[in-house]
């Protein structure tokens, strides 16, 4: 079939945008804005979908390779129980992202749980991935699709890999299928899926005498997928080779403040050594990002800065305290002092500065760090000045 008769997805999106213009008898400014906005929405959605599909297939393929090697690898006995650790080390040296041993186990489990994803592969992609690498693909082609699940194409088209991370953790097949169905039907975000699992939606649905009312209420309040936010997924931006600081800032104001705050702290001198911005840390199975991390060579401790573009909340303090505790356990050397957290919360006309001491109870040390760290009023003036500068340029 010719390209003219069967346009690609991008051309189809552009044609829809053109039809919006043609609906109006005059191509006025309002029609121009509408056409551009709809073209942007459609193409961003397509780009996000394409990236998520590629990431999902990449991780599924890794899981398949590992599974097949464990079953049929000619030298598999040589590596035994240490296979994934050794493989992770070798892949890390090759520069591949997200190939730690724990992630490789997740990919293997992902393949084992969703073998039917092979249905979403085009013949060309199937050959490129497996044609020369595995003869075992003939067996994969014959593997039956489980009854309580969707076909591979539907799953890959509607769910991101981060959705699958949550679903794979559900051992009960019926329960997992329930959340697959609800997630696809409601177009749930990953955060919403996690919330519904945590609220025992499946169990409550089984016990409820009015299931329709429960489902309606759950979907009415559910958070839907936003195409612009899916590319901020840690799996996605590492897959694309992006740095966390390039995608994790929540607003242009926060981005500008963090960039200038980093320079401001360094200019103060007093022993600050910059370590990272949007530094990723792993707590359990989730990744978190600390806005700014410094090491203070005089105080011999890490100093963590968290910036929030609104008023103070105890939740922010709890979040920062979690980061401080993680650094104490995972980054603190025997000769280091406990890490310090500084929480910065801004208002248009006010800047509230809160120091989270992270459990410091040494009075001598507390007195010493107050002399070395930036004074609250100094940071307050800086933040207010940057907000004013930002407002004048908008």
Describe what this molecule looks like in 3D.
- It is a single chain.
- This protein has 394 residues and is an alpha+beta fold.
- The chain has two domains: 9-74 and 83-228, no CATH class; 246-393, 3-Layer(aba) Sandwich (Trna Endonuclease, Chain: A, domain 1), CATH 3.40.1350.
- Helices cover 58% and strands 11% of the residues.
- It contains 19 helices and five strands.
- A five-stranded mixed sheet has the order 1-2-3-4-5, sandwiched between helices.
- Strand 2 and strand 3 form a beta hairpin.
- It starts with 8 loop residues before the first helix and ends with a helix.
- The model is unreliable at 1-5 and 141-145 (pLDDT under 50).
What composes the largest sheet? 5 strands, mixed
Q: Secondary-structure element order, as H and E?
A: HHHHHHHHHHHHHHHHEEEHEEHH
User: Residue-averaged pLDDT, rounded?
Assistant: 77
Instruction: Please give the radius of gyration in angstroms.
Output: 26 Å
Q: Please state the overall shape, judged from the principal axes of the Cα atoms.
A: globular
Number of strands: 5
Helix percentage range: 55-70%
Which parts are unreliable, with pLDDT below 50 for 5 consecutive residues or more?
1-5, 141-145
